[in-house]
Amino acid sequence: MSIRLRELIRAVRSCKTQAEERDVIAKESAALREAFREQDPRYRHRNIAKLMYIHMLGYPTHFGQMETLKLIAANGFAEKRIGYLGLMLLLDERQEVLMLVTNSLKMDLNNDKNPYIVGLALAALGNICSAEMARDLAPDVERLLERQPNPYIRKKAALCAIRVLKKNPELVEEFADKATDLLHDKNQGVALSGVTLLLAICSMQPSMVEQYRKHVPTLCKMLRGLLQGGFSPEHDVGGITNPFLQVKILQLLRVLGRGNADASDAMTDILAQVAANVEGSRNAGTAILYEAVSTIMGIETIGGLRVMAVNILGRFLANRDNNIRYVALNTLAKVVAVDTQAVQRHRATIVDCVKDADVSIRRRALELVYSLVNEANIRNLTRELLDYLAVCDSEFKPDLTAKIATLIQRYAPDKRWHIDSMLQVKSGMACVGRRVVGKTL
Predict the structure, then answer these.
(1) Three-state secondary-structure class, residue 240
(2) H helices of 300-358, where?
(3) Would you say residue 440 has pLDDT above 70?
(4) Three-state DSSP class for 14?
(5) % of the chain at pLDDT higher than 90
(6) What one-character DSSP code corresponds to residue 182?
(7) Is the pTM here over 0.90, yes or no?
(8) 3-state secondary structure 57-126
């Protein structure tokens, strides 16, 4: 007799060695094979749940794949839920047995009585469908996207359409207009799915970007409504209304504004509002500000807006969270090529990051300082870097020494300063660095 799932988990957790665990799994696998041969539908869903647990532990479960298809063909929601979960976990698109479930998926996509069964089918199709399945079931997904009044299903249909289009890019034209219709949906979940679908279409078929640029005012209106809409308990995250939708809109605006002055001008005002009004003290606000900065730097914007974006990154550098500081340094490294002067204003903060305790921040800050050095500031920056060279960790000295030596050689104002600075580097370096400076001298 097969045991319950919780009893199996308890037995596995109580094993003290790998051999004990293998014995428990082997015994339960044999019981499951016997249960599958008996064709008893009462405990099939429980057996598939245990099979998924065994699969997650890394043991073979191919002997139970057909049982998941039987659960999917059942009438009840509970059985279908376990069946579809097993389908997504135990099978993948490369297995031929997956083709046997196409008819069940089609029937569930056309289920008029239970929307949650339709949702299960869309979730499964969006996760594991092959190119053939996507081609066969695309009309059903398109119908749900266009005519289904339930926002729960429309949202899932939009996300499922992304997988369908990735498997069959030639179907983009069929979904292009239906994706833009979702932008006008009052349900924010549907709107988020629609923006995500538009991003996927633009990525798969760049020629559609020009067609979608006419929707920039609609996207700006959506973003402005989120900024000024007031408190919404349903979508509030850390005091910010639906930051997930705001981030996706900013990403889509970046794609639509890149290389087009008219589209960029249309979104300038709303980008300035985001940069000025969003509070960055929490992760949700920081994510929105980061996407706003990336969008400002990625489109054809005026200099004032770029300065505002760089100032936001400067505030990120003062944050105590190392992840935020690393993201700021990484973004500033890309911005240097666009607006070096704006980044120069935060030079002192960037140099301080070279002395940070986190080695990843130190290395990223050193690369950024390397990009900021020029003939005008070589003396000041070299002095600060040499002061740090004398006290920095031994494992960081080779990189720092090599960077300083290269900068001195490239931007030295005169021969005397060049030699004096090299001698200071040599006196403050480790043995590893002597070879670097020796070669430079």
Answers:
(1) strand
(2) 303-317, 322-335, 340-344, 347-354
(3) no
(4) coil
(5) 46
(6) G
(7) no
(8) CCCCCHHHHHHHHHHHCCCCHHHHHHHHHHHHHHCCCCCHHHHHHHHHHHHHHCCCCCHHHHHHHHHHHH
